[in-house]
Design brief:
This protein is mainly beta and 256 residues long. It has 2 domains: 107 residues, Immunoglobulin-like (Sandwich), CATH 2.60.40; 109 residues, Sandwich (Immunoglobulin-like), CATH 2.60.40. The strands form 5 sheets. The chain has a 5-stranded antiparallel beta sheet. A 5-stranded mixed beta sheet has the order 3-11-10-5-7, with no helix packed on it. It has a 5-stranded mixed beta sheet with strand order 14-21-20-16-18, with no helix packed on it. The longest helix has 29 residues. 22% of the residues are buried.
C-alpha cells in the first residue's frame, strides 16, 4: 500500500513538471523577444495615428522568465515619455506590462521619430533593457471644415522612386525629387526624414505657394554597403489627404 502511495505521488509530481514545462513553452511562444531573463511580446511601439496635438498611451507586454522576482524602474526618460510597470516587482514566471505615454505636443516635432530608451532591472544576466518608440507624428486635421478640405494644399511628386543602378562602394548618389503644390493654400513641409543614417534628405523650400514647384534633395552615401540597397524618405506636410509622402531610393553597390 505504501509503495502504491509513493508511486502515485511520483506520478503526480511528474505530471506537474510536464504541465510546468508546457506552460513555459507557451509563454516562450507568446513572448518571443528576450533580453536577459525578461521576455517581450512587443519590444517597440509606433503610436499609430498620433498627431501633433495628441497625448497617446500604449502597452508593452512582458514576461519574467527568471526564477527570482524582477524589479523594474525607469530613470532619465525624456520629458515627453512616461512609463510605468505593472507590477513594478514581477514574481517569477509571471506576466506583466509597461504602460507608455507619448506626449506629442511636448515633443513638438513632426514625421517619424525614432526614440530608444532604457529601463533598469535587478536581472543579473542583463540589468538594462531597451525599448523602441517610433511614432510618425502628423498634423491634426480634425477641425478642418469642408471648405478647408476643398482649398487645402496638395503635394504631388513627379516621381516617388529612383533606381541609381550600380555604383562602387564608397560612391555618393545625389538625386532630386521634384514636387508641386497643386492645392489652393500654402504647402508647408513639416519634416523630411530618412530611414537610415546613410541617407540624408532635406526640402529646398519649407513653404510652397499654390502652383509653385520645389524639390526634395536626397543624398545616399554607400560607404560600408554592398549588394542590393533600398531606403525610404518620409516627407511630412500639411496636405490633409497625403500628410506623409514616401520616397524611395534603391540600387546595387559593388565591392571595389
Amino acid at each position: 500500500m505504501k509503495a502504491k502511495s509513493i508511486l502515485l505521488i511520483l506520478i503526480g509530481m511528474a505530471f506537474i513538471v510536464v504541465l510546468k514545462a508546457q506552460d513555459e513553452a507557451a509563454m516562450h511562444k507568446k513572448y518571443t523577444q528576450k533580453t536577459g531573463n525578461l521576455r517581450f511580446k512587443n519590444i517597440g511601439l509606433a503610436f499609430s495615428g498620433i498627431t501633433i496635438n495628441d497625448i497617446q498611451a500604449d502597452t508593452i507586454f512582458i514576461y519574467n522568465d527568471w526564477d527570482n522576482t524582477m524589479t523594474i524602474h525607469f530613470n532619465n526618460l525624456p520629458e515627453y515619455i512616461t512609463c510605468e510597470a505593472f507590477p513594478p516587482e514581477m514574481p517569477p514566471k509571471t506576466e506583466g506590462k509597461i504602460a507608455v505615454t507619448y506626449n506629442a505636443p511636448l515633443k513638438g516635432e513632426y514625421g517619424r521619430i525614432v526614440n530608444y530608451f532604457f529601463f533598469e532591472t535587478n536581472d543579473i544576466e542583463r540589468s538594462k533593457k531597451k525599448i523602441l518608440v517610433s511614432p510618425t507624428i502628423k498634423e491634426d486635421f480634425s477641425n478642418l471644415s469642408e471648405e478647408d478640405w476643398g482649398s487645402a494644399p496638395v503635394i504631388r511628386f513627379e516621381e516617388a522612386t529612383y533606381d541609381f543602378g550600380s555604383i562602387n562602394q564608397g560612391d555618393t548618389v545625389i538625386h532630386l525629387y521634384p514636387f508641386k503644390n497643386e492645392g489652393n493654400r500654402i504647402l508647408i513641409i513639416r519634416a523630411v526624414r530618412a530611414t537610415c543614417g546613410c541617407t540624408k534628405a532635406k526640402s529646398v523650400d519649407q513653404e510652397i505657394e499654390p502652383g509653385e514647384n520645389s524639390i526634395i534633395k536626397v543624398v545616399y552615401i554607400s560607404r560600408g554597403k554592398k549588394g542590393e540597397q533600398k531606403y525610404h524618405v518620409s516627407v511630412t506636410s500639411n496636405d490633409p489627404k497625403n500628410p506623409d509622402s514616401k520616397l524611395e531610393i534603391s540600387g546595387n553597390v559593388l565591392l571595389n
